[in-house]
Amino acid sequence: MHRLTMSLRGLLAAVLLTTGLVTALPAPASAASLTEITGFGANPTGLRMHLYVPDSVTARPAVLVAIHYCTGSGPAFYSGTEFARLADQRGFIVIYPSATRSGQCFDVSSPGALRHDGNSDPVGIVSMVNYVLQRHNADPARVYAAGASSGAMMTNVLLGDYPDVFKAGAAFMGVPFGCFATTDGSSWNSACANGQISKTPQAWGDLARGAYPGYTGARPRMQLWHGALDDILRYPNLAEEIKQWTNVHGVSQTPSYTDSPQANWTRTRYGSAGTTAPVEAISISDLGHNLPQGGMAAMALAFFGLDGGTTPPPTGPCRVAYTVNAWNTGLTASVTITNTSTTPVNGWSLVFTLPGGQTITSGWNASYSPASGQVTARNASYNAAIAPGASVGIGFQATHTGGTGEPAAFTLNATACAVV
Q: What amino acid positions are annotated as catalytic residues?
């Protein structure tokens, strides 16, 4: 078993070193540079943190955690992928964690890695996120993860462990949450790597939900990538990931939308036909274990909603970000209200009109009335104050009759808000 483990790791390293995954890209054209951060918070496994902050960021910038492959590092993933260059264009911040154990693989196997607030790598990565949110006034409603190979497996783990932190993820050639679990102290699961583990959607979903018992909030959206010729983390893992995340979101495994954005690519969306579908999968028939490359990072950012250019702070008194996760006859909406004025808000009501056929059944962090049509969301006792530059997150669950669109406009205390 040990010999097989080492040979698989060696093969993984060889494949990565001979493909475009670790080919250095031109450095971002700016004065910004990759900086190592120490003392960023709880870090039980001694991860290293590198941070890329563009010269120009958006107001309340989004945060992307970009997670490397086995044998890699944060700086290697910085130089070998497009995320930093795209951050220059679009004004978000990138965190590059580095695994420091032998082989430089992330822990996606131990019991401590597969639970919320455990004792392994996910804790350190979330500490990095919290550091950036606090030090760079970043937007906690726009935190994302994207990773390749071991990093893709960690993306699955992070979205299972911390659905309260991550809004969405993009996993390039990964495996489902919990698939790599081991009980013998090893970090490699050959059956999973070889695509030999198959579970029901419910069983996969239960594994992901079980990482954070009692959590009832919105779940992160997931984009899944896999090459059909992958002989390291084999292609059947894509179907198992689709089972898992469609079940987590309570949507059908039958695609709502299918297209071919490039030759030999098949893209399927589940739960919605739109670009913010709960689950999106891209299968590439002529590629092996050598993602991401040419344009794939940009497609991941489009899935996240980070495909716009750098924008100046809005000039109005408020800004609203609104995201829908929909399934057969239901949806959840997550709403972030930001005070972009220079004066505090003390007590608020947010008014918007739901699209026809949508009816609110429950909500959090606000009271909602009426349940359909023109709705007023009023603050709870604990979030009535919004300081200048600060945000409040609210949300609700609703039923729908087929229309899963978003309100066209919002007013906060009778004043129109910018919509992002």
A: 149
Buried b (16+ CB within 10 A) or exposed e, 275-292: ebbbbbbbbbeebbbbbb
CATH classification number, 318-419, choose in 2.60.40.290, 3.40.50.920, 3.60.10.10, 3.20.20.30: 2.60.40.290
Q: Give the model's pLDDT for residue 341.
A: 85
* Residue spans per domain, the chain: 2-304, 318-419
195-209 pLDDT, tens digit per residue, is 999 999 999 999 999
Q: Are 128 and 380 in contact (CB under 8 A)?
A: no
Residues 6+ apart with CB under 8 A from 370: none
Write down the pLDDT at residue 308. Answer: 66
Residue 97 Cα distances to 280, 327, 351, angstroms: 25, 33, 40
Let me know: does 333 contact 367? Beta carbons within 8 Å: no
| Look-up of token digits 């009816």 | 359
CATH class of the domain whose range is 2-304: alpha beta
78 vs 177: CA distance, rounded Å: 25
Left, alpha or beta for 195 (phi > 0: left; psi -120 to 50: alpha)?
Answer: left
Phi, psi of 154 (to 5 degrees): -65, -35
The separation between CA 8 and the C-alpha centre of its own chain, rounded to angstroms, equals 28
Q: 349 pLDDT exceeds 50?
A: yes
Tokens of 367: 């009271």
